[in-house]
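User: Batch of two.

Assistant: Item 1 of 2:
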Amino acid sequence: MLEFETAPPGDYIYGGNLISHFGHFLLGFLSRFWIGQHLDLSKHKIICHGAGTPEGWLSHKFVRDILSSIGIDQHNLMVFKRPTIIENLLVPWPSCEEHNYVHTNYASWGNMVGQSLLRNRNLA
């Protein structure tokens, strides 16, 4: 019989496969976070999977900078190694899929992320 674990209580978002290659990160992982236009991502646990660990993913400056600009840090990232029951889980559809489609939410979300990254920076 298959055994399940139960996730700690809280609100979760499925982030998907986190690949720390810049293009894959933007198109495959970040494209699900358009929902951040409607809710505070920092209050959610982000379920991700992929090669590596949250510590390893965040060792890449662009991953760390982009995620922190949208309120996500190491404490938000969750990796479950076993089948896990999650009581409250949002699964946002990706707003961009390579070679297939791009939703306008991807552009507006990208603009919000960019503005957050550039806030308090002198570009002159």
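Item 2 of 2:
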Amino acid sequence: MHNNETPLVDAIAAYIAKGRQRGHMPGHKGQARGLLSSFGELAAWDVTEADGLDDLHAPEGAILCAEHLMALAVGALKAYFLVNGATAGIQAAILAAVKPGEMLLLPRNAHRAAWTAMALGDIRPLWLEVPQTAAGLPLAVMPEQVEQALSAHPEVKAAFFVYPSFYGVCGDLAGCLAAARRHGVTTIVDEAHGAPLPFIAPDLAAARLGADLVIDSWHKSMGSLGQTAVLGCNRPDLHPEHWLTLLQTSSPSYPLLASLDAARAEWQEQAVAWAGQLRQERRLLENALAGAANLRLIDGADLPAGFAYDDTKALLYSAVGHSGGQIAGKLRECGLEPEFAAGRFALLLLTYADTAPDSLAASLAAADAKLTAVNPEGAPDPAALPLPEQAITPFYAAHADTKDIPLAAAAGCISAGLLTPYPPGIPAVGMGEVIEAEMVEKLQELMASGGKVQGVAKGNVTVICQKQQ
């Protein structure tokens, strides 16, 4: 097979060309009618496991070939298509690597999917605190933290890393992986926000650095449809496919699967050109803000030694103290919707699909000018809170009797679910952890400033029916 082949796309196209009457699901029978009329030809591609179209959960034909080409592209031994997002990949990777009752090492900025995997698999967490800058920018765990934790806890079976972070920070992944290998633990890398790396900086990609399991979220930056991602596996003794069969839908969307096949082929053909385009776009944004009164772009020079920045992201902050919310507000006034705003930062994602980078740069310059007339409101204190106490495991928290109480009265209680500020979507309190009074104040402050916290509904949180002594 060649890089530009698209076996699944071709199989679906061939099926459509046969013109068979559809006596199978989906019920629209390939016709976009009524409110679905805007979907156009996509309806014809929305098929099922018909003759010649293979089966995601037992691939033998077109899907297997497409996954093989994906594995070659990302530098993995095997690759698995995901239609339940990187969430399913993270869950399957953890459950494939860690058995019930065993321990997983992971950073505090791990995605909520890591929590749900631990709840499903009765896995015990060992947390690593994530350092941050004075401005409140989370960095990444360092190799010496990994080495120290694994030396103190030889019972750890797997180590989970986030690379790069949602904010675009890249830590020393090679050093962290080396520390884990010295202790014989399986390595899992959430590379959801770094899917372009195998194509634009392959030497920095997690799979090529030797990670055992790598999750890339293709819909975020690679051009495939929403919910699509890829799980790469570099060890034949690990079987995430077993867990994917249990976790993913039994009715996978063929347009989603085909979009992964098509996006991979296009990236293999256009990688060099798109990498150059992204570098040029980043320079345009830097030039637009070169003499700006307020806005700055975070880059590697803003980070401590040992950390780098992913230039496919544009992380904005105000040199004079505007909050991320204020920055985002002015961006919207200039016709630009950011990915998120939190604390003192607002984030823009840069991709190959930015066809008008000059317009994007002009919007940044215009937003900077508008901020001059805005009194900086600052942002909540970026000081990191201590790690909450893990009173019971996520598994037992998920199965415990619960009750809803006001957040204001929750200090000292054990959380039954995840309390997750959005953005950026990283749990502040996890399942089975004690909700400290300081955390209650922090969450209330966040919501008062316009932020949202998943897990807080109408002012209430769900807690375990007992009081932590």
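The CA atoms of residues 420 and 427 lie 4 Å apart.
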